[in-house]
Amino acid sequence: MPASIQEPEVEQQPVAVAVAAKPAPELEYVRFRPLHRALHICMVVSFITLALTGMSLKFSYTGWAVRLAHLLGGFQTAGFIHRSAAFLMFTAFAVHLGDLVRLKRTHYGSWKKLLFGPDTMLFTLRDLREFAATMKWFVGAGPRPRYGRWTYWEKFDYFAVFWGIAVIGATGLVLWFPIAFTRLLPGWFINVATIIHSDEALLATGFIFTIHFFNTHLRPEKFPMDTTVFTGHMSVAELKRDKPGEYDELVASGRLQANLAEPHPAVVIKTIRVFAWCALAAGFSIVVWIIYAMIFAYR
Amino acid sequence: MISAQPRRRAFANVCWVCVLLLLAFAVRLGVVTAWAQEQAAEKGAEKAQEKAPEKPPEKAPEKAKADDTTETCLACHNDKTMTTRHGQKTVSLFVDGKRFAGSVHASLTCTGCHSDLDANNIPHGTPAKVDCGNCHADEAKQHAKSLHGKALARGDPLAPRCVSCHGNHDILSAKDARSPVAPMKVPFTCGKCHQEGTPVQKDRNIPEHDILTNYSESIHGEGLLKKGLTVAPNCASCHTAHSILPHTDPNSSISRGKIASTCTKCHSQIEAVHRKSIRGELWEKEANVLPACVDCHQPHKIRKVFYAQGMADADCLRCHSDQSLKARDGRVLAVHTTELAGSRHARIACSQCHSEVNASHVRPCETITKKVDCTSCHAEMGQQYQKSVHGQLFAKGDANAPTCKDCHGTHHVLGKQNAESPTFPTNIPVLCGRCHREGERAAIRYKGQQHEIIQHYSESIHGKGLLKSGLTVTATCTSCHTAHRELPASDPESTVNPKNVPNTCGVCHHGIQEQFVMSVHSASVTHTGKPLPVCSDCHTAHTIERADKDQFKLEIMNKCGRCHEEIAKTYFDTYHGKVSRLGYTNTAKCYDCHGSHDIRSVNDPQSHLSRANVVATCARCHTGATRRFAGYLTHATHHDPRKYPFLFWTFWGMTALLVGTFVVGGVHTLLWLPRALHMRRELKAEEAAEQLKLPPEGEKK
User: Fold this and answer.
1) Looking at CB atoms within 10 Å, which of B13, B245, B301, B394 has the fewest?
2) Could B676 and A220 be called an inter-chain contact, meaning their C-beta atoms sit closer than 8 Å?
């Protein structure tokens, strides 16, 4: 739904200006607005922080957890960091919801248009058809579907965040303010909240650091990494190849030119890559740690 | 036998004459004697005729003539068979005229004592009891006031009267060795009632026990009974003969106030050897607790002296001051007089320890056969040592067994209050370490669990208190193991046996022991066959740490978990357990909720976790805790569907969600992988083709 709208990029300079100076660099398609990139970075930072600090408690029986807890400055500091990261994630989530409200007002005019427009994040019949077609493609019984702006797995990831924030966030608040919550809930609900919080977090980290990483960042055809969500840009050729449906629509509606921009300077790209690789390394480390803790050190 | 026959007949005749004579007397006195009495007399005569009528019967009338009244009485009472009934008892009325004649009262007539009888009025009824006080007024008065006299007045059947000690018709002078009140006989006379097992000793309140045995083994008893010294004190010497009073009575000869004068009757110069007590500070500063003789010298166990008195130290030092003096086997025999002079035994003569010397020999020591026996003075320590593992080994002849001198030294023995003494608290670990340090002889033969004990002790809170902080009140080896009665922990008598550990630690940690005995871990509360934990199970024996150290706080949970396995496991599943496993103590640990020494059953209203107390217990960390909050399951597990169904199903619901998501996502990804690889290959091929087609592109740049 929200990120679908392609606002004119502020950073985007008129093409002609650039051409005059030196040979015009190949223009790139702008897929994500700066706000979306910033929010994703906030999610990455808060998520990895939450995972590390939370897992250090969950897997307290491993030597790594002990060392990590000490590295973080003790369990109380780790707890403070955990709650700070949670606050950051809640904030990012709230900003996104605020952005939706703003988009509805400025671009869509009504929730109906926003929620049921062509670039919606909600699952549609087209997603079902694409899923079926994808299955055929997987087994070699058909061509690669001509995916549009949002594929069904991207939509799944998007709602997974909604679900995760709701479930982990709510139980996290119970654990954060147990005395306040037990004014209404029985004492054993803290135990239940602990299990839900911890297992849902395990699901989230496990899913993000394996399936999401593969689906969006590490697919062989995009190897070594798809940094689109950080840069916001993707080459037109890649757009044509990866999201042919979207490309067709952009060409048909004549909006493609309006959404092209000059590439980022090399240093920006480099910085982004360093950050992305760090996040990736952290994510994979956590996965390795989880597997080690669950299988080899479980008690 | 032939010769005996006519003699017997002759005796019979003589007897008949006697009977006739008696009858004649009776007739003459106009007394009609009862037929029964006559017959008894006849029978008695017959018996007398059979048994031992050695005495010439003619003499009796002769003597009767000399002492008319006595003669008159004995006419009847000389009959050994003469009895009367006293209630249920048959009492002999026989009076041995001969012994009476030998008694101190021989010059008196019967009626002198039996003053209510009249020799002219025979037969008489039951006479009144003789009142010795008629003549012996002072003694009677003393007796009446005495313990015995008062008991008599109460009608105590066990109370002794004059006759109980002195006898009746055969009373002899106390100077006569045969008298029951002669010095040699007094212990036996008193002992009739006052020896172990008698009704008096059993049923009456006598604070002393084994009186006769102790007395006979004491220096007084030996003097009297073994050596026959009649001047040695007997019972009456201290207790008096007639004014016997309890020691609590201020008038008693053995009361605190009077015992000294009683003892000094014999020990008249005793002050000379008791200067310390008499002129010492005690007498001046604490006159109220003035020591009485019996405070040091137990009433009946007066100390025996084993050493030869009169042996002067100078005689010994004539040879032993030579510093090069050695025995044939190389033992140094020199005595450093300065060492001895500075020692605890400075005023003890050589011969008091080196007993068996004989002053009449040129070398008085040549009669010595035994080693110094410290127990002749330190008897109690000796008894303890014999029971100890050290003493047991010594008795077995073990070469490693330590004796008194191994710890206390020999001539330079110092008191344990002397900082230079090896038995001064700060020196004890070194002293015991001589054998018990790792690698030393006691440590080598030791097969138990405790190792590096001296090292560990030095690093423990006790060791640091003693050795670093110099606190002499800190527990040292001997505080727990005792100084003289060390026993292995397996011995139920040992102070470090699990059963006795709380008492041992409680000597210093009394307040903790008070809490502990009321806790579930105390054998007085929990009756179980399983071993209950004692102090050392949590605090260890030699590596005791400060309880406020993090390491101890974390370690203690494993200690609890050794017995409470399941509950400890579930604790580690909760937030509290996980944090503590990370190595942080600022979270609830076993003892924060359950208490440490005062752990009680949750059902006990005084438990920290009882319904009344649990909210306050939680609130110690969670300010504002409510009852509902206290409903948090601190030992919950999600593996028990019956006990915690909510947790169980939450866990398995979440697990199903997790597995389901991963299976769908994983399968999707795996199916995708070959396609994605295929796409990559195509892409590479396209790129390569493009580069071949458009080489000038690069040139343009």
Assistant:
1) B13
2) yes
**Which residue type does B549 have?**
K
Q: What is the pLDDT of residues B615-635, one digit of tens each?
A: 999 999 999 999 999 999 999
- What's the average model confidence in pLDDT over A56-66? 91
Closest residue in A to B639 (Cα–Cα): A195
Q: What does the block give as tokens for B388?
A: 């100890």
Picking from A137, A178, A191, the nearest residue to B675 by CB comes out as A137
Amino acid at A237: A
For Cα atoms B536, B542, B546, give the angle at the middle one, nearest 5 degrees: 80
Q: Give B-chain residues touching A135 at CB under 8 angstroms.
A: 671
3-class secondary structure per residue, B81-106: CCEEEECCEEEECCCCHHHHHHCCCC
CATH class as words, domain A15-296: mainly alpha
Read off the pLDDT of residues B264-283 as tens digits, 9 standing for 90 and up: 888 877 766 665 445 545 54
List, for residues B67-119, the tens digit of each pLDDT value.
Answer: 577 888 888 888 888 888 877 788 888 888 888 888 888 888 888 888 888 77
Q: Across the beta sheet with A260-261, what order do the strands follow? A: A233-235, A28-30, A260-261
The CA–CA distances, whole Å, from B511 to B453, B503, B505, B507, B518 equal: 27, 11, 10, 10, 12
Q: In chain B, what are the domain boundaries?
A: 4-128, 145-296, 313-372, 373-544, 545-636, 646-687
In contact, B128 and B169? CB cutoff 8 Å: no
Examine the pLDDT at B45 and tell me if it is beyond 70: no
**What Cα–Cα distance (Å) separates residue B622 from each residue in A80, A155, B101, B583?**
17, 42, 104, 20
ipTM tops the 0.85 cut: yes
- Distance CA(B173)–CA(B166), nearest Å, equals 9
Alpha carbons B621 and B585: distance in angstroms, whole number: 13
Two tokens, residue B149: 């006299």
> What is the full DSSP assignment across B248-277?
TSTTSTTSHHHHHHHHHTT-TTGGGG-HHH
User: CB–CB of A195 and B668 under 8 A?
Assistant: no
Structure tokens at B561: 């978990």
pLDDT, position A5:
45
What is the per-residue burial (b if ≥16 Cβ within 10 Å, else e) of A179-202? bebbeebebbbbbbbbbbbbbbbb
Domain spans, chain A: 15-296
- Nearest CA to B558 out of B569, B574, B547 is that of B569
Closest residue in chain A to residue B648, using alpha carbons only: A192
The label of the residue with tokens 């780790």 reads A78
Distance from CA of B581 to the nearest CA of A (A): 6
For residues B251 and B147, the answer to whether their CB atoms sit within 8 Å is no
The model's pLDDT over B394-414, given as tens digits with 9 standing for 90+, comes to: 999 998 899 999 999 999 999
**Nearest-neighbour CA in chain B from A261: distance (Å):** 21
pLDDT value of residue B51: 45
In chain A, what residues touch B658 (CB-CB under 8 Å)?
199, 202-203, 206
Distance from CA of A57 to the nearest CA of B (A): 6
pTM confidence score? 0.63
Kindly write down the DSSP assignment for every residue of B272-334, as one continuous string: GG-HHHHTSHHHHH-GGG---HHHHS-SS-PPP--SPTT--HHHHHHHHT-TT-B-TTS-B--
